[in-house]
Structure formats: C-alpha cells, structure tokens
Amino acid sequence: MTANPLTAAITSTVGAKAPAALLGYQQRWVADDAQLKVAEKSRRIGLTWAEASDDVLIAASDRAAGGQNVYYIGYNMDMAIEFVEACAMWALVFDRAAGAIEEGEEIFRDEKDAEQRIKTFTIKFPSGFRIVALSSRPANLRGKQGVVVIDEAAFHNDLGELLKAAMALLIWGGKVRVISTHDGEDNPFNELVQEIRADKRAGRVHRFTFDDAIEDGLFERVCMRKGVAWTQEAEDAWRASVYKFYGDDAQEELDVVPSSGEGAYLARAQIVASQRPGIPVVRWSQPDTFAMLARHLREAESREWCEAHLLPLLKALPENRRHYYGCDFARHGDLSDIWPLQEQQDSTLHTPFVVELRNIPYDQQREVLFYIVRRLPKFRGGAHDATGNGGYLAEAAAQEFGAQRIQQIKLSAPWYIEHMPRFKAHFEDQTITTPADADVLADLRAVKKTRGVPKVPDDARTTGADGKPRHGDSAIALVLAMFAVEKIDVGEIGFVPVPRHSRGFDNVLSGDAGDNDIKIPEQQAW
Q1: Is residue 202 located within the same domain as residue 285?
Q2: Same domain, 249 and 296
Q3: Alpha-carbon gap, residue 449 to 266, rounded angstroms
Q4: For a Cys staple, 286 with which of 39, 231, 253, 290, CB 3.0–4.6 Å?
Q5: Where is the domain boundary, 261, 292, 319?
C-alpha cells in the first residue's frame, strides 16, 4: 500500500525540509490556551483536525502536566466518528499509547431525526484520561470535568443550553472550545462571537477565512496529499472552483460573513439615548486660498481660533479624570474629526466636545491637535486613522507624544470586525455620551454592515447642515477614541505651569502666551 504523503511528512523526523504538521492558522489556534476560545471559520480547512492533535496531548498527559478528559460534541454520528479517528491518528503520530476506539450505547435518540442519533465513542490513555465523543444533549455534561469541544456549534439544536452546561466546567479549571462556520447573523453562535468581541463575555475569538487558510499553505497541503506539484496557477484555479461551487453562499461558508448581515449598525434610538445637550461640536473651515497664505499668517489664525473656541472648553475639563482621543483625518472633501473622551469614575465614557476641521492645511491640523492634546488632563493616549494621508498626522502625534501613547491604525475589515462590537456595546449599554447634533447623529447612522463588516461604506455620503458632504467622519473618530480607552495602558502625562514667551506658534502651542496658569506635559520639549 502506498503511504499517505501527509502522514509520512507528519511522522518523519528526518530532514530539515519536512513541512510542519499544522499550518500557520492551525498552530495559532492550538497555541491559544484560553479557557474559552471560539473559532469562526471557513468550511473544510482542517481546524477540527488540528483541535484533535491538541486534545490527544491533553488526554495523554498526566494530571500534573495538565492532563484532563476531553469531551467532543458534534451534531451527528459521522462527525463523532471522524473526530475520534483523527484523535487515534494523532495518538499514533505522537507515539502516545491509546486503547482501541470503544463504541458505547446510544445515549441520545431523536425520534424526529435519525441523523441525530449518536453513540458514545471513547479512546482511553494510560494517563487515566479519555477522549469521549458525546451527543449534544446538554445533560450529558452534568458531573463531568475537563475540556469540552463543541464542533459546528451554529448547527446544534440547543446551543444556548449546551453552552450553559459547558461553561460550568470552567469553574474547576476546565476549558471550552467552540468551533463553527456561520449559520446566520441571529444564530446563537454569532451572538457568542459578538458578546466576546464586545467584552460582554470573557474569552477569545479567532477568525479563519478560506483565503487565510490558502495564504498559510492549505492548497500546498492538498497537493501534498494528492502527491502532485504545487503551482500558483493551479492554486488560483482551485480557489476559483471552490468559490464557484459555493456560489452565493460563499460569503458565509468561505469568507466567514454571517448571512443577513446588511443594514444600519446602530439603532437611531440607541444614538439618541446617548445624546446630551450642551456637548459642543466645534467646527472650523477655510477656503482653498487659506493654504497659500504665509506660514506666520496661518499660524496666527490657527492660534486665534484655538484660543477663542477651544481654550475655554479645555480649561473646564476636570483635572481628576483620564482623557483620550480619536482622530479621523481628511484634507480635501471629507472632514477631520478629533473626538476626546473622558473616563468617568464608573468607567463610563463622556464626550466633553468634538472638533471638526474642513479644508484645513496639514500644518494647521497638527497645530489644533497638539493644542488640544497638550491640555487634556491626565492624558493617557490617542488613536489615529493612519490610512493614506492620515499617516502624516498620526506619525506627527506619535513623534510628539510617544509611540506607545499614540496608536497608528491602518483601518481594515479585520480591524473593524474585531473592534466595532465594543463600539456598539457602548450604545447598547448606554455607557457613552455624544453631542445632540444632527450631523454627528447622521455620521453614527452611516455605519452599516457591508458583507458582514461594520464600517462606513466607501460610497456612503450625507449632506451636513452647512450643505457640504460628510462621510461618517465623526463616527470613525469615536471608534478610534474608544479603541484608545480599551488598548492604551500607559501612565498619564504630568503637568507643570509654563512661563510666558513670544516665540512661534509651534512653541506656544504648549500654553496660552498671555496666561501663566496654562499647564503642559512636563516631559515635552520645545
């Protein structure tokens, strides 16, 4: 019999060129030792197979080395058989002695669906631990302790109750692994994913698309199994054929986008409930000719505007609250928005004001930003859209205030998928205040799910009260500010008074030249 090329590669210990048994995304999944981890994944990328490798090592280890029982829960008998056979293969590869697969009696019978009739299948190890494939009846987990693997979770009949039963194992050091493709946006599996991303439930989410798997070598592994040579042309043709096979279902089945995921991301009522009268939106715009003025004239105009419109607001900020900000950048057409956030005693977030700049030159945007940031009490950090031209202001802020304090974000679909649920959760839980401003409301309503990704669509345009176009700019600034609150954990900048001086605007940004009481970061150099 001809040896399986993949098995030969896995079992071989000779030669440095032998491929790794697990591909990159499989390695990342197995390496995560979180008590609760969830994988939203494409079809047929071998994640359960990789999970089996980890489960064999767990069950084959003694208690002192972290050994536990492993309970696998699929939604039909074929899945159970396939999983325990994969575990048996890994036990052989790892040279971990294991007993034969034992078939138990049928423990769950669904008279309405013969496919749901599942027997127990068990592999015993010398460690005293076992790998057991069970049916998805929640009661089957009662009294058990160990690692629970719920496979294709979105397709279980009672996932909510099954998850409740599985979570009970965490109390005594157990672990839960939930793996699935999507089956609609309203499915309990997707709700679990969104709860974790919104920090409403502890755990970690991994996302593995078909293209992620291809990038990590999935087709090369397919070629190795078939014993044929890999070429880029063959890979491209194979990918195209798989997508054609799935047709309109490819987004959900391969791209990991739950179906029925289009539409506005935030309900109007949620936004209105967050609005507070009296939160100002400070706007500054200039004609095209302003950019051609001499530098000292632009600086003087910028400083005068800052002192007239921003200084009173900045002086009113409480000195005992941490402050953050988010900044969405634009030079022509769209707006630049700077959105400060103030962290309250109860960890809710308050917006003291929002700044919008239209058609303001790069240097003056930097001047306005620095004027604000240098006066934010207990300033912790900010986050910038560093995509395209936004990279200029993001880099300038990082150079001025420190790379650890300023996050430069390349906005992308994975970033939105990861962080927008927390943004939404603040509105759902009413832990954020926003201005009672029609244009800001329109920006927040502009966030929509496009192919399952919550973002402001590229073609989304509204008209502001000034009759000029908007592109959801303040919404992105707020998302970035919330990201700064969540992710930046450095000490606050200290403040000391600065003396009066009369040098150029870059030097007086640190304080009001006519007011010796203005405070600035003490480590700031001028």
Answers
A1: no
A2: no
A3: 10
A4: 290
A5: 261
Chunked mean pLDDT (size 10), the chain, 526 residues: 41 46 95 96 95 95 94 89 92 73 48 47 91 87 92 91 92 94 90 93 96 96 93 96 90 88 81 96 96 96 97 97 96 91 96 97 97 97 94 96 96 93 94 96 90 85 86 94 92 51 46 39 35
Residue 238 sits in a domain whose CATH number is 3.40.50.300
- Who contacts 400 (Cβ-Cβ below 8 Å, separation ≥6)? 370, 373, 524
Is 256 in contact with 193 (CB distance < 8 Å)? Answer: no
Could you tell me if 488 and 465 are in contact, meaning their C-beta atoms sit under 8 angstroms apart?
A: no
User: What does the pLDDT read at residue 198?
Assistant: 92
Annotate 166-195 with b (16+ C-beta within 10 A) or e (fewer): bbbbeeeebbbbbbbbbbebebbbbebbbb
Strand partners, 282: 355
- Quote the pLDDT of residue 209: 96
Residue 526 lies in a domain: no
Q: What are residue 203's DSSP bridge partners?
A: none
DSSP 526: -
Domain ranges, residue 42:
5-261
Query: What three-state secondary structure class fits 107?
Result: strand
- Are both 179 and 314 inside the same structural domain? no
What count of other Cβ atoms lies within 10 Å of the Cβ of residue 18? 13
Tokens, residue 415: 């970033």
Query: Could you give the number of structural domains in the chain?
Result: 2
Q: Decide if 94 is inside a domain.
A: yes
